[in-house]
Every structure is written in C-alpha cells, then in structure tokens.
Amino acid sequence: MLPVALLIAHNTPATGYESSIYRSTPLIVWFILLLSTVCGVFIVLSQICDVKLGKYLWKIGLLIIYLCYITFISLFIIRGYYLWCMSGDPASHIGWIKQIILTSHVSKDIIYPILHIFSTQIYCISNINILLISKLLPLFFGILYVPFMYILSKIIFRDKREIILSTLASTTLVNSWYLNFTPNACANLYFPLVMFIILKVISVNDVRWEILVVIMAFMYPILHPVPILTCFVLISTLFLPGYIYAKKNTRSTAIKSRYSLRLKITLLFLLFVWSITWISSFYVWESTIRNINMLVSEGGPLKVTELASNINYAKGYGYNVTEQVLKKMGGSLLYVLVAIVSFPIVWKNKNKEYNNLFSLFGPLFIICFLILIIYFSNLPFDPLRMVTYTTTISTMFIGYLLYYFIKKIKTENKKTYIYGLIGLVFLLFIVWINTILTLYPSPYILGSNFQTTQSEVHGMNWLFENRNLDIEITGINFEPIRFGDLLLTSKQKKLQKLYWYIPRYLRIPYHFGYDNKSTLSNHYNQSLYMTINEKDKLIYKDVFPEMAEIRWIPSDFEKLNFDVSLDKIYSSKGVEVFYINGKK
After folding, report:
1. pTM (2 decimals)?
2. Percent of the chain predicted with pLDDT > 90
3. DSSP-based three-state secondary structure for 570
4. Within the chain, what is the greatest distance between any pair of CA atoms?
5. Which three-class secondary structure state does DSSP give residue 317?
6. What count of other Cβ atoms lies within 10 Å of the Cβ of residue 341?
7. What distance in Å separates the CA atoms of residue 550 and residue 556, rounded to the nearest whole number?
8. How far is residue 542's CA from residue 524's CA, in Å, rounded to a whole number?
9. Strand pairing of 472-475 and 451-452?
10. Mapping DSSP to helix (H, G, I), strand (E, B) and coil, where does residue 327 land?
11. Of 153, 222, 241, 583, which shows the fewest CB atoms inside 10 Å?
12. CA 135, CA 270: separation in Å to the nearest integer?
C-alpha cells in the first residue's frame, strides 16, 4: 500500500502556496500511511508479546513503520515544494553556502560552519543544486535518527525486546526537529549518536572509542553551540544517579570502573576549552556576556517575561494557550512524564542490568531544571530548544516501561499491569497522531505553512534586480534580509540596504487603511515598493480567521486593484509587487 500512497502524493504536486499540507494532500494518502503504521505497530507488539521472538516478522513490522516515518518527513519533497522556510534561517544558510562556493572562504559571521562546509562538498562532488541539498540534508539526518536511536538502545539494554520497543518509540515524530535546513536541527538529530559514543567510551576501555570521542569533541561544538551545552550536562551528571544510589543502598557496589573519573574530567576539560575558544571568537559571545552582566548588575528583560507577554497577547485574541501547548509539546511532556514514573522501577532493578539506563536520570533531570533556569535569563536562544534532548533521553524509558508491563503480564497477569500497558499504548497512539498533525505548520497549531513557492522567489529576484535602491520595500509577511541572503551576494546586499524586520514607520496598516482613508498612499510620506504574496492572502482566511476582521479580509486585497495611488508593476501566480506613490 505504501507505494500507492507515494505515487498518489507524487502525482498531486503543489501548484501554488498551500496554507496546509494536510488539506492539500489527498485523504487516501494519509489513510494509507496511518493504516500501514498501525499494522506495523501491531506486528511488532504481537511479536514482542510472543514467548519466542521471531527472526523476521518483527523486522518487517518495524520496517513498515520506518518507511512511513520517512514518508511523513519527506512528504513536502514528494509533493514538489520548491523550497522550505525561506522566511527563516534556512534562507541565510543557503546564502552562506553560495558565498563559500563563490569565494572559497567561510564567512567570519558563521559560528557553526560544519553544515555549510559539508553542503559545499556535496555540491562540488555531485553537482546537486544547493536548493535541493537544503531539502535533502535534513531528510538525511532525519532518516539516520532512528538507526542512531537503535544503536543507543543497544548500549543501554541487553534484552532485544527493549531495544526494539525503544527504537519503535523513536519513530513517533515527537522530536519535532526534522524539516528545517539549520545546523541546530541537524545537530539535534545527530545527538543520539553523540550519546552512544559518550556512553561507549565510558563503558569500554578501548582506545578506538577514545579517539572517536575526541573527534566528536572537536566537531560537535562547530556544528552548533546549543547541543554542546547538553553534552556538558550529559558527561558531568551521568554519575549522579549511581552516586545517590550508592549512598542510599549500602549493599550496592560502586560503579567507578564504568564511569572513569579521569576520562570524564579530561573530556569535559577538552570540550570546555575548545568550545569557549571557538565561541568566544564570534560576536555572539560578547553579546551574551553583556546580557548576563546587565542582568546581574542592572536587571533586564527575561525570557519568562517575554513568554508571559506572548501568552497574554494570545489570550487577548481569544486563543486557548493551554490547548496549543498540549498540541505542540504534549508528546515531549508525556515522554518525560513516563521517564519520571519509571524512576522507582529502574531504581529497584538498577543493580541487575540497567546501570546505563539509570545513569540517564542525571542529565534528564538537570536539563529539565536548566530549561527553567534559562527562562530567568536572557541568553540568545529559546529555552524550548533544550526540550528535544529531554525527549531523546526519555525515549529509552518508553521502551523500558512498555516491556516492563509486558513482562509483568506474562509472569503475574494482574489487571493493574494489563491496564497500565493498554493505557500507555493508547497514550502513545494519541501522541503519535498528534505529532503527525503538528509535524508541518498548519491551522491546527495556528501556524502558517513554511512552503516557499518558485514564483515567490522569482518575484523577489525581479524586485531586487529592478528596484530603485533609494526606495524602500514593505510587505505583510516579508523579511527582506532572508530573500537577500538567498538571492544576492554580500556586495549586492549592501547596495540593496535590506533590513531584518520592516521598520514601524513602513509597516502596512491593517485593511491597508481603507477603513480610515481612501488610498494607501495617504499613510506614507514617501514612495514605497509593496510585495503581496499568496501567504498574505490566506493566513487570516485559513490560519487566523478570528483575527481577519481586525487585520485583513479577502476584500481588502481586491481593493488594491482599484487604488489610484498604486501601480502594479509585477504580477505572477504567487507574488504581486505594487509601487506606492507616496506623498512628496
């Protein structure tokens, strides 16, 4: 059935901007993918519950689930999306890669150049278009995420069934970092392999793994600085649960041989020195130090203040914040909750075969605490970026608890364990359905689709080539610098004088001001270029209909064609460019 779904999806490509990939993809595709995944899960669970684990049948079930997982994260490519999220960071990363290809040098502004160098090498060797590479590389890391989780499970568990169930739990799309072409996204999908290497080098006295962990220590900070913070936490707190257990249980044996203090200190020192040396050579280090100094000495804006402001803003428009949090983060919260619930069970069985699993409670709890601490600071990244690491660690406990219930049902057959297993499977099924619906931005999570159409790129390219450089640009959902990064060289960007965000005095008034004045030009004291794309027309119709009457309704865009102060100077299927004849 999967080939049929792929064929149908491929034969119904996107012909323009879609406010939701879920509505635009034929329903039969989603039905086949859901049915195939359910069948795969049923096969795997039935084999796990069987007295004798078969050799091949569970592999077939897991393969079906894995293929469905790959299809979900690649659906926008299958349906022919031209580009993804060019209004965000991916556009800048593509621009930096083009700059490397043109100049053979890495820009001094790139604090995480490994992904750009890797992409440049792929381009030079294969001659694959950079735009295509920007879609394929995140998919490549997303595909590898499940095998990485499998080998991580192998070093944590001895029982094959627990390994299978943990790998199964990693295919539920709960990680949420699958689609964007950014170093942070790729580093997060690479994180299970980093965990595996660290646990392996601590568990096994082998120089080959020690060489590998040194290479990792040098390469990972250059991939992205945020996950390296998690590596510090991981290495420095793995011993904590075992230490606490040894203090509480006098009969337990110390695990000093498994967690060599000398190796951990050496590795931490290497990571710390190299990370600080690297990051401190970029502008972000100075700004971070200044923010911390201002926060300590004078006080200043906190992440938690910004969060409270956003919550109040959303409530002011009648949106249910709790509902959106559960939709977007419910899966991660459930995974962490399952890990916490399993703590007393793992504590009880630690001395038997779960030392590595037990040691993961240290970094898990500390990272959760660290997220709260970051909210009371002003570091240059969102604290929720750390949630993906708690999810990755908690996935191991999902597999453990599932098999714990199965074993108890086999040996004791108590209703409590039967209800526990059914309840956990049901919750995971709900999480899996929800993560499918939140994988792509859509009205379901109050998000506009990150699709970037070819006509939009061509329209912006035309504007950059033909505009009067003394006249500024405005728009509704428009970030000039991003398209400048995508389409222009560094010298051209300086000539264009592009800005990150549209200044307040250039912003387009709601309803284009037609509810107060007869022409749009009456709101400006200067002439401007104005871009209007399909996203502008659909976002308040499909995503935020409750706000349409306040901001923009479809008839507002029709009135532009009758505004005598406007000249339509460019039009394509996805983009219109107007010249606003402002007051002199």
Report:
1. 0.92
2. 55
3. strand
4. 87
5. coil
6. 13
7. 12
8. 30
9. unpaired
10. helix
11. 583
12. 34
